[in-house]
Design brief:
The complex is a heterotrimer of chains A (about 425), B (about 375) and C (about 300).
Chain A: H1 2-30, E1 43-44, E2 50-51, E3 59-66, H2 73-92, E4 100-107, H3 112-122, E5 128-132, H4 135-148, E6 151-154, H5 174-188, E7 196-202, H6 205-221, E8 224-230, H7 238-247, E9 251-255, H8 258-270, E10 277-280, H9 294-300, E11 301-305, H10 315-327, H11 335-356, H12 362-370, E12 395-401, E13 409-417, H13 421-427
Parallel strand pairs in A: 3-4, 3-5, 5-6, 7-8, 7-9, 9-10, 10-11
Antiparallel strand pairs in A: 1-2, 11-12, 12-13
Helix pairs in contact in A: 2-11, 3-4, 5-6, 8-9, 11-12
Chain B: H1 4-24, H2 26-29, H3 32-57, H4 65-80, H5 89-106, H6 108-113, H7 116-136, H8 138-141, E1 147-148, E2 153-154, E3 157-158, E4 167-168, E5 171-172, H9 175-199, H10 201-211, H11 213-218, H12 223-249, E6 251-252, H13 259-272, H14 277-297, H15 316-334, H16 338-356
Antiparallel strand pairs in B: 1-6, 2-3, 4-5
Chain C: H1 2-32, H2 39-81, H3 89-114, E1 129-132, E2 135-138, H4 139-161, H5 163-173, H6 175-180, H7 185-208, H8 223-233, H9 238-257, H10 273-284
Antiparallel strand pairs in C: 1-2
Classes of the chains: A alpha/beta (about 425), B mainly alpha (about 375), C mainly alpha (about 300).
Chain lengths: ~425, ~375, ~300
């Protein structure tokens, strides 16, 4: 017992000593903590340009939060490669603002927690984010992005992302596309007052926003919309097709993923429900044209998209596709390549403009971006970024699947604004 | 034996303040990336301790933990925010925890009757139903995009970034730095209350229930009542973890509270070692921090290429997933009693070696305890 | 009327596929007390092997090989990884988590190989359909019903009439007694895992065939829908798995088919409905429809 007492007393004494020592160490050591002298990051570089996070004397660092291992792996890879290609091309031409451009890529695999941590990791060292994939990821980061004023181009097109200074949805939003889709159906497929349209859509932002557009346009045209909500894991749409057939639909809109589009069209064709189907842009991938549903897709499907087909003969698109195929001969050329490259070019234009105005801080970049009223990269329609509450463009292309073409699609109709869009936007 | 126990206790007592000081240090050195990992780990630890009480002690399996985390997180965001009642954040946090407990209570007709794996899958239903409600009840949950989480304020001190950023000893104190200490405080609270609970009368009753339902009820334990009570308490810890998670995320989104999250929590308590608070904590850190760190540093490994560089190569995220999966398998193969058991055996081995060395006032070497001695467990 | 028949047939076909998966869960649970979280990846593996081999071996050959390989892998996983943990109930918990680790490794590798592709399995039915009176059914779905019925019948016979089945049932009843009676637990268990693996590989074919567009990386997630099916019937009862699967299949088909009438429950309820049904059943019968009464009398 005696020993125990003594040990206990000495232990207590050592505990106190340890505590005091540790506190002293803490006080002394924070003096040399690297965080302590991290205070001023901004300033003015030697060439007189105001700099902030992510901009050094001879580099500009951009960030990409992408999905290379999750459900959007194919899209993510296309965008990453296209943007890396842009960075190399830009640097070969002397860079931007006499600085080389560098893109820091972080793969979050569609996991919100990983993405939020990755953001905390790269945010202090990048000036802007030309790529953020995954609607839940974008949603989780919205507040942080606004707070840090990092100009961000999300690869998501829901109207709920509008109205934020630092977040820019490129091109049209899903609802605008769907208004164009309904207009396309009434104009070319002979739908008339009183007909019913089915709209199969994902749960969540993407589907809800698309449904909003189709419902509005249908009401204007005197049509009725019957919605069918599905999940990303539903790949057999037999039951949905049965329900649509019961409703006697004359056309079907779909705002889901490629697998769902293939199943819907395949099942509808086999059940004799031979009606036109119009998909939102994310609902198609070139891989679909290698599935058994390919003939049915070619016969029934159209796609509404803010971007032209990669097989389009716009000179900018042709050049880009040619250099992409040279650089990545094994990778498919899909719409992700185009949208990624386009986003990078727009980002480059913003940076150049900010540099001309004398500053490359995050605030400067956002300001330069919002001053662009007619940004034209030659890869589609020009965009206007000055109004944060309005989609950057309201012009929609209509595409058709074509197994022979690059990227599996060809242009069916050139970009045009559907007649009701302005009214819709002012009513919203 | 009588000597060993106090000695071990005092050794622990001596290391406790040291540990506390060590845990207070990181905000002075590490940047937001590390602090966020720490915050997520602390929140996970709180939730895992709750689940450990339920599964390890009461022998009930729950895959519905993500649902109760969501109740806590969304409850706080709604109660303290706009639209919502806009209560003072501290009160909202307290009410959110109670709300999670109430949700657990509502489920008790099932929790009291259904056992083991059946309860596991039954609680799985909660995750799916909850996710459905989170997406559908837009006005409360904000739908798919979720909602912003108002920062917690305590007596005028906000756990969020403020302008200008105050500095402590020259280190700027932003949201993560402040939340770190909140997380520590909440974790300490969890640690001590849960340990107290395990040693209390109801805690022993639950352990008896796990070992044999029949024997326990013979001894006068009210089976159904104790089962549902364990479920409610476990939900409240989950609610607390949810509040901390919400504060760390600053925005809650429905997709985070998925089945995968529930499975993660189950993995935490088993990897940590069923039925111990320290084990659940270790498991929580393992499951939360390891994938994040591996993803961050996997590109340093040989054969791993930078993200998106080459065709068919193994990227850092994939490498991290391989390693993480393999780590789970290996830990459990070589230490079926989890990290807690592994640590205990390592400690015993060190102690045995030390006592073999000539030491004047060495304590009597402990009779080598059968460390893996487990009471006969319930059938799942 | 047509819609009703449509939904019934669709539900039965779906239920038949779920039954193959749910039966796998049940067989494994009965033999080892483990809830196999890696079942989805085993299913994906079976599908992937069929998809890459069918060009060289033809559909039947590819499927046969895929079934064999998946079965062998499942058995090997049990024999060399899980069984090291022991046979008692506590280790069943631990082994359940080990299957999560296995699932992560397998799924990561298969996802990496599949990428964003939609793989065709080369099945003989294509997008052909059959008219049955007023309703149209995909041939692949009819095949699913027939194959499931035959396979499930065979599994029942295996349970009932072979010595392996007897050993399995004895082991499930009382592990120690069975071991004392000379049942070689390790082999019986591994056999059950092989069987479950084979069933998973077979199910993959029908999950990727026509009404679905092909095999993709998320196909394995469908195994989750078989969870409520297996529990609903009673986890230790093969007959229960069958009944539970049909109930879940029909529920899903009906809720989706009549979605417009059911919109009070919120759109997209179809994916949640199986769990709601399961909860209700568990409230009344805590161990499922066919589960043994577990409550001890004092």
């Amino acid at each position: 017992m005696n020993t125990t007492h003594r040990t206990r007393r000495t232990r207590r004494r050592t505990a106190k000593a340890v505590l005091a020592g540790a506190l002293a160490l803490l006080l002394a050591a924070t003096g040399c903590s690297s965080k302590a002298d991290d205070g001023d990051k901004g300033g003015e570089a030697a060439d007189g340009v105001r700099t902030g996070p992510g901009v050094g004397a001879d580099t500009i660092r951009l960030g990409a939060l992408t999905d290379l291992t999750g459900p959007y792996a194919t899209l993510g890879k296309s965008i990453v490669q296209a943007q890396q290609m842009w960075a190399e091309e830009t640097n070969a031409k002397g860079g931007i603002c006499d600085r080389t451009v560098e893109i820091v890529v972080k793969d979050h695999g569609y996991d919100v927690q990983k993405a939020v941590t990755a953001y905390a990791d790269i945010a202090p060292d990048v000036v802007a984010l030309p790529q953020v994939i995954g609607s839940p990821v974008v949603a989780a980061l919205l507040d942080d992005i606004e707070r840090d004023k990092v100009l961000t181009f999300p690869q998501a097109w829901a109207a709920s992302l509008l109205g934020r200074d630092a977040v820019q949805v490129l091109g049209t939003t899903y609802d605008v596309d769907m208004i164009a889709a309904v207009e396309f159906l009434t104009r070319t497929k002979g739908l008339k007052k009183g007909d019913t349209i089915g709209h199969v859509h994902f749960e969540g932002d993407y589907g809800a926003n698309a449904l909003e557009g189709s419902t509005w346009a249908a009401r204007k045209a005197g049509l009725k919309v019957t919605g069918q909500k599905i999940k990303a894991t539903d790949t057999d749409l037999s039951a949905q097709v049965s329900a649509l057939r019961k409703e006697g639909v004359k056309a079907v809109l779909i705002s889901a993923g490629p697998a769902q589009t293939a199943s819907l069209v395949g099942v509808a064709a086999s059940r004799g429900l031979k009606v036109p189907v119009v998909s939102s842009a994310p609902g198609f991938a070139p891989q679909l044209m290698k599935t058994p549903a390919a003939p049915a897709l070619a016969a029934m499907l159209s796609i509404v998209s803010a971007a032209p087909a990669v097989s389009s003969d716009l000179p900018g698109v042709k050049d880009m596709v040619a250099s992409y195929r040279k650089k990545y001969p094994d990778s498919p050329v899909d719409s992700g390549v185009l949208s990624g490259y386009n986003a990078a070019q727009l980002m480059g234009a913003d940076l150049k403009k900010a540099c001309e105005a004398g500053g490359l801080t995050r605030e400067d970049v956002v300001k330069a971006h919002r001053a662009q009223t007619n940004a034209d990269t030659g890869l589609g329609t020009p965009q206007n970024f000055s109004d944060v509450d309005r989609p950057a463009s309201v012009e929609t292309y209509v595409l058709k699947p074509d197994a022979e073409a690059v990227g599996g699609v060809v242009n069916a109709e050139d970009a045009h604004a559907a007649p009701g869009v302005e009214e819709y936007l002012s009513a919203r | 034996m009588s000597d060993r126990l106090p000695a071990a206790l005092t050794r622990r007592r001596a290391s406790l303040p040291l540990l506390a000081v060590a845990l207070c240090l990181p905000p002075f050195y590490l940047d937001a990336f590390w602090l966020r990992i720490g915050l997520f780990s602390m929140a996970a630890a709180i939730g895992a301790v709750g689940l450990a009480l339920l599964s390890g002690t009461a022998g009930q399996l729950s895959l519905g933990h993500a649902f109760f985390l969501a109740v806590g997180a969304y409850g706080y965001a709604w109660l303290a925010g706009e639209p919502g009642p806009g209560l003072p954040p501290a009160l909202a946090a307290l009410l959110a925890v109670l709300l999670a407990g109430a949700a657990g209570g509502l489920f008790s007709p099932v929790a009291a009757r259904v056992k083991g794996v059946y309860l596991g899958i039954a609680t799985l239903a909660l995750v799916f139903l909850g996710h459905h409600v989170l997406l559908t009840a837009d006005s409360v949950t904000g739908g798919f995009n979720g909602r912003s989480v108002p920062p917690l304020t305590l007596g005028g001190f906000a756990f969020a970034r403020s302008d200008p950023e105050p500095t402590v000893l020259g280190v700027p104190f932003g949201a993560e730095e402040r939340l770190w200490y909140l997380g520590l405080a909440l974790f300490a609270f969890t640690w001590f209350t849960a340990r107290g609970l395990l040693r209390s009368r109801p805690g022993r009753a639950l352990a008896a229930l796990r070992d044999s339902e029949t024997a326990a009820s013979v001894m006068g334990v009210d089976v159904a009542r104790h089962r549902s009570a364990a479920f409610v308490v476990s939900s409240m810890y989950a609610g607390l973890a949810g509040v901390l998670l919400a504060l760390a995320f600053r925005r809650v989104v429905p997709d985070y509270f998925s089945l995968a999250l529930s499975v993660d929590y189950l993995a935490m308590i088993v990897i940590g070692g069923l039925g111990s608070v320290a084990g659940a904590t270790a498991g929580a850190v393992f499951v939360t921090a390891l994938p994040l760190l591996m993803t961050r540093y996997a590109d340093q490994l040989p054969l791993v290429t930078a993200p998106g560089s080459a065709e068919g190569a193994v990227g850092p995220t994939e490498a991290a997933r391989y390693l993480y999966g393999a780590a789970i398998v290996l830990v459990l193969l070589y230490a079926p009693d989890g990290l807690h058991g592994l640590a205990r055996r390592a400690r015993d081995r060190v102690r045995r070696r030390r006592s073999r060395a000539p030491a004047p006032d060495a304590v009597v070497p402990p009779p080598s305890q059968p460390t893996a001695a487990r009471t006969k467990e319930h059938t799942p | 009327m047509t819609t009703l028949l449509d939904n019934i047939l669709g539900g039965l076909a779906l239920g038949a596929v779920y039954a193959l998966v749910a039966l796998g869960f049940v067989v494994i649970f009965k033999a080892s007390g483990v809830l196999n979280f890696a079942h989805g990846s085993l299913l994906l593996l079976g599908g992937y092997l069929t998809a890459v081999l069918h060009d060289d071996l033809g559909f039947a050959g590819a499927l046969a090989l895929a079934v064999l390989v998946t079965a062998a892998l499942a058995g090997a996983l049990d024999r060399f990884l899980l069984q090291r943990g022991g046979q008692d109930a506590h280790s069943a918990h631990v082994q359940t988590i080990v299957t999560i680790g296995i699932d992560i490794v397998l799924l990561t590798d298969l996802s990496r190989r599949i990428g964003g592709d939609l793989l065709s399995l080369g099945d003989p039915w294509g997008d052909a359909v059959t008219e049955l009176g007023p309703v149209t059914v995909a041939d692949s779905r009819l095949a699913a019903i027939v194959v499931s019925a035959v396979v499930i019948g065979a599994v029942f016979a295996l349970f009932r009439f072979t010595s392996w089945g007897l050993s399995l049932r004895a082991a499930a009843e009382d592990l120690e007694a069975a071991a004392l009676m000379g049942v070689r637990l390790g082999r019986v268990r591994a056999g059950a895992w092989c069987l479950a693996g084979a069933l998973a590989a077979l199910a993959a074919v029908f999950l990727a065939a026509f009404p679905a567009p092909g095999l993709e990386r998320t196909t394995g997630q469908i195994a989750l829908n078989a969870f409520p099916a297996a529990i609903l019937g009673g986890l230790a009862s093969p007959a229960g798995a069958l009944a539970g699967s049909l109930i879940i299949g029909l529920t899903e088909a009906f809720v989706v088919g009549y979605q417009s009438e059911l919109h009070v429950l919120g759109e997209g309820f179809g994916d949640v409905a199986p769990y709601a049904v399961m909860l209700m059943v568990l409230l009344v019968r805590p161990t499922g429809l066919f589960g043994a009464k577990g409550a001890a009398r004092v």
